[in-house]
Amino acid sequence: MHVVDGQTLSADETARIDAYWRAANYLSVGQIYLMGNPLLREPLAPEQVKPRLLGHWGTTPGLNLLYAHLSRIIAARGQDLIYVTGPGHGGPGLVANAWLEGTYSETYPRISADVMGMGRLFTQFSFPGGIPSHVAPETPGSIHEGGELGYSLSHAYGAALDNPDLVVACVIGDGEAETGPLAASWHSNKFLDPVGDGAVLPILHLNGYKIANPTVLARIGDDELTALLTGYGHKPYFVQGDDPATVHQLLAATMDVVFDEIAAIQYAARFDGVTGRPRWPMIVLRTPKGWTGPKEVDGLPVEGTWRAHQVPLSAARDDAGHLALLEEWMRSYRPEELFDRNGAPAAAVVDWLPRGDLRMSANPHTNGGRSPHELELPDFRGYGVKAGETAEATRVLGGWLRDVMTANDAHSNFRVVGPDETESNRLGAVLEVTDKAWQAGIDPVDQHLGPHGRVMEILSEHTCQGWLEGYLLTGRHGLFSCYEAFVHIVDSMVNQHAKWLRTIRHLDWRKPVPSLNYLLTSHVWRQDHNGASHQDPGFIDHVMNKKAEVVRVYLPPDANTLLSVADHCLRSRNYVNVIVAGKQPAPTWLDMDDAALHCARGLGIWDWAGNDAGDPDVVLAAAGDVPTLEVLAATDLLRRHLPDLKVRVVNVVDLMRLQPVVEHPHGLPDAEFDAIFTTDRPVIFAYHGYPWLIHRLTYRRAGHPNLHVRGFKEEGTTTTPFDMLVLNDMDRFHLVMDVIDRVPGLARRAAVLRQRMVDKRAEHRTYVRSTGEDLPEVREWIWPTV
Amino acid sequence: MHVVDGQTLSADETARIDAYWRAANYLSVGQIYLMGNPLLREPLAPEQVKPRLLGHWGTTPGLNLLYAHLSRIIAARGQDLIYVTGPGHGGPGLVANAWLEGTYSETYPRISADVMGMGRLFTQFSFPGGIPSHVAPETPGSIHEGGELGYSLSHAYGAALDNPDLVVACVIGDGEAETGPLAASWHSNKFLDPVGDGAVLPILHLNGYKIANPTVLARIGDDELTALLTGYGHKPYFVQGDDPATVHQLLAATMDVVFDEIAAIQYAARFDGVTGRPRWPMIVLRTPKGWTGPKEVDGLPVEGTWRAHQVPLSAARDDAGHLALLEEWMRSYRPEELFDRNGAPAAAVVDWLPRGDLRMSANPHTNGGRSPHELELPDFRGYGVKAGETAEATRVLGGWLRDVMTANDAHSNFRVVGPDETESNRLGAVLEVTDKAWQAGIDPVDQHLGPHGRVMEILSEHTCQGWLEGYLLTGRHGLFSCYEAFVHIVDSMVNQHAKWLRTIRHLDWRKPVPSLNYLLTSHVWRQDHNGASHQDPGFIDHVMNKKAEVVRVYLPPDANTLLSVADHCLRSRNYVNVIVAGKQPAPTWLDMDDAALHCARGLGIWDWAGNDAGDPDVVLAAAGDVPTLEVLAATDLLRRHLPDLKVRVVNVVDLMRLQPVVEHPHGLPDAEFDAIFTTDRPVIFAYHGYPWLIHRLTYRRAGHPNLHVRGFKEEGTTTTPFDMLVLNDMDRFHLVMDVIDRVPGLARRAAVLRQRMVDKRAEHRTYVRSTGEDLPEVREWIWPTV
């Protein structure tokens, strides 16, 4: 436990920091309560108090205090610094600071730097048509939404990567610190390169309480807490107190020491050749929850307790006592000293602040990046495989990603993240040109580990996701490769990121951010060896609930289409792109030019596979690599055994094409959909995931009553690849049976073939259980060159 | 860092522990590789090796070592102990131990304790029709599925709660330790009561590697690791080595010390009145990954590296060199000493093991509990509210839950968990009879905290879920109350739990486990104050992808129906029950008897609200409390303004009733569905969540083309409750417009009313943006007593 004692600040400096802090606190309280009389130039009247009091005071004074002291550091050192606040409930604080810095009025001119603007600032907060009560995309200077807790520190690390001049100050609430994602992300310091990356300054804010309970870390004692933070690899500095003057001095002295240490670590690594993992400093700030607010309300203690969490005076509009307390509280900040006659911040309060884009609320890292570069993408067509050849799709992609890595080396703006699966997912080629980032110990036996690596692997999907989000939100590019089943671990994180993307589309001052790209592999149909725990294709369903304007789902059927889709996704901005692709050896169906065209269309008829001559008896459709293979194998069976049957083969890469055009921008117009799928012929659709998703996407199409979908129905565990298909009735034999059952008149004519399919399935079951392998004819089937 | 040195074991004891360990390792390797020649009584031939080698060796020898040493402790002390293994990849190890203990053959008589059984044991592993490669429900003695990592420690704590005589030994893999859920769960020790609960012994197994990378905790050095574990509140004992004889002595000596310490802590708390949080001991075991396996394969080091993770000799069937190495490896365990002439374990290998239900593989805690009690449920009818009265549904439920807590006090078998939201979710009445569990510091200002509390609150949904799963899987009962939006944090955990439930239905020896009950409140329609980050009703969609046989979703429209549904859920077993209910003041629609009947039916026509006399012009249906209110308000408008229009009101509590009977056991037969919803009249359906779910459930119903669903379409942020409805077009005015637009012939007749609805919506928008409140007529609307 380190404590820095010192009288760093002159009386004058203390006074101006304190004035700034009071101003920020005043403006925060005003936002929570007032819809009139913002400067309290007249006595406060009930009707000037909002009818619904919605907001969170508890964490706000602490966030404001840190804002003031970080501004001092920035102004003194010209430090490039952004501020990530885990306790997102502190929305009014961050907005108040942005207004004091002038950024808010620059961003939203209606909220001007005068009494009129201040009035609007107050009224809009947590008000219909106004702004959210949490830190949000609407808040200038933010990359981190408040609300769902746990992602601040991984976001901070993501922002710091490849920004060597940047310090990311990250306030971690002691409530948030109890979450799993936050607890895991402390170890991010084993991945941060003191040479090529910036620094993260974690500030654990112990205000002691959550909504209704004390926090764990505030109640384990300083010794145990010191041990914990030391164990996380940090050198913790403690600042505690409830007297503002004392805390100002302690915090300023500590900040000076901590920023000196950060600079010294970076200098040593960059210029003195010091290697090995540094013990980065961090701050533990222990101040009362709701500090400077009402000490007691209705006879119960409030300041320093959980009762300060939201709105300490809940009846300020209706209860004269509460109203008087509110006015007394707000006047305790002495607004008459803080704002000039126009209502603008008084010069003495703000003239010492950092200027221009060094203001935390205006730092360009938080809005598209300080010096963003488009990703250079080598022409993916050069990496393709010949049609007919067998390839591992993700391994082919890996070759291209390796060269993407190289092409962007000069700008250091591309990263691949994943939970220990880059090689398992067969993207290992990237390790030919970079390492896996690693600052912890390296043994001689280790491979591809290095302090400057651009591949980030930790066995925490949460941390991978948080790193990548922070990296993207500061204007860089990346790819998250993950086992399909386990990506559900970040369901909730992708929800929140999608909300961010949805919101910034409507904020003209927010720059688009590179898309969040998922490569889901080791997917449900090829987890026969790992069994049920590894089988779940539901992430697609999950993201499909997000706003259509931000979500894209691609199911490339082979290596070449995967390349084309990946190129498209890495070029895009403001989307969540989900790509599902296999890593096992599989046929390549389309030459590269055809693949690119097919992906551009999103779906299409594969004339070369069908024999319908424009008028099919049945449509066999597929979305996904394994379903495509089965549909083609079924088509082969049908064409050999029922040569008169006219089969059309349709392949879907872009799942959104199935929706009506009113539902999704990629939606296919009804006329085109009807032309491809017909309106009156049976459609047997083999789909990668849960079958009802296809019904959901198509239920308004004319031909929907004829649609029969096969997909994953939660059957299967440890078995063989083909057995997975049989268990879920999506195997080629069952697809043939489906066709026979659904094409009018075929049942009698094809009765023998149907029985043969039933027998084949039985034969398979017997064979697989005795040998542990799939039938040779299944394993060895190839598309016949007709 | 504590190290216990000592020669605890006699030569004889060492020999028998080592022999047991060798036997378990031999059987583990046999499972991974062999399908013949199990005892190696003849030279190993290629065709005796499985064609597909699927399994994980790396973690297995460590798990087996611990099993042996824990068995020694159990045998010596009669200790009730279960074994939770985080590195679930060690499936073959746990199966091997269960077979050596005899449990496997008792459970699966085909897998007998002889050479025939051993052969079957080997062949079935990771084989079609056999058993999964991970620890799974099929594994006797397990409550923790391997596969998705991170939940072992919270499961262990859940199992230990209210089992004062039990020790749960929990092996945490160093890979798993990187995950968020695991990292958070270390702090569970602040919630474990040394008086009323059992103990958890965490054993951090540092074998150093994941799939392709070293692990973080293995590379931060012993000092930093000691600090970390001390910071987590533990007293860590280190055992490290790669010489079996040495490690046997160190581990045995350490185990003795550690179990003595656990006993001393419990004695002090139970009999000496010692209070305060104990520093529970734990073990750090550092042994090589794949210990005793091949040291080198194809010139590359394997033992002690990531290459030992899965199958170290990948070509044993096809490569003579690999085959020879495999045979050498297996013979190195000296099977001829370990098994008798029949292939049964030799007496000396197993005669010292614990017997009966003290065997870890047979411990009844892992299969329904050692002394399970049905939950006593006071008659919920006594807690109801009169129809017409306003009530906060969850607060009413809280009163009943309080008495459930009291009624089961004697058996200590009911817990409520939640992330700091029990009071926010208005279930605070339970705190009248119990505390919130808390072993950390307590300040005078704190309320309802206590060491013996039965309400468990930590700001980690993962930890809450893990605790509850562990508690349920050992035969006890509970409820998880959570904000609706944030329950997505545990999407992945509920996936895995649902798979467990799905599997045990097909294992006749597994006893049913009490259902996992979610109460989702603070739901999407009442998060207007917290905004977008808190708005997401998609958890219902998520669980709907699980097997129909394990999932139930209930949307009680008021307090009385909530009571009835909660009673039903707490009585049930083997389900995941999701209840969505509001916490805000809302009308009570049904008297208790009607409520109970309505819930028993799952859905029904509300005759009292409609005027259709058996032949409606339109059906207005609702699922969810807020949708029900809006549908009734719309009905009121329609009946007042269009008295000739015959409106039927349908309310849905049990969402599964909407599905066809072939899809779900609760599905309504088509004839009943058609009778209620009609086949040819427009149905306007107001639904709590994403509207397409209703389409998915009903697309096969005859009347589906007439169905028009309103629900949440991702609109809204910080605003008012009614504005949320307007933004999503589910408000009463829009529902009236929907009726007018869809009932044939009504468009012209009701044109004026329709325009009035449009104007009302506009009036609302203006009013809410100027006042911050909803229109009085909306806020004050009550169902007219017609």
TrEMBL record, chains A, B:
Residues 10-370 form the Xylulose 5-phosphate/Fructose 6-phosphate phosphoketolase N-terminal domain. It comes from the Bacteria. It is an enzyme of class 4 (lyase). Its EC number is 4.1.2.-. Its cofactor is thiamine diphosphate. Belongs to the XFP family. NCBIfam families: PRK05261.1-2, PRK05261.1-4, PRK05261.1-6. This is Probable phosphoketolase. The lineage of its organism: Bacteria, Bacillati, Actinomycetota, Actinomycetes, Micromonosporales.
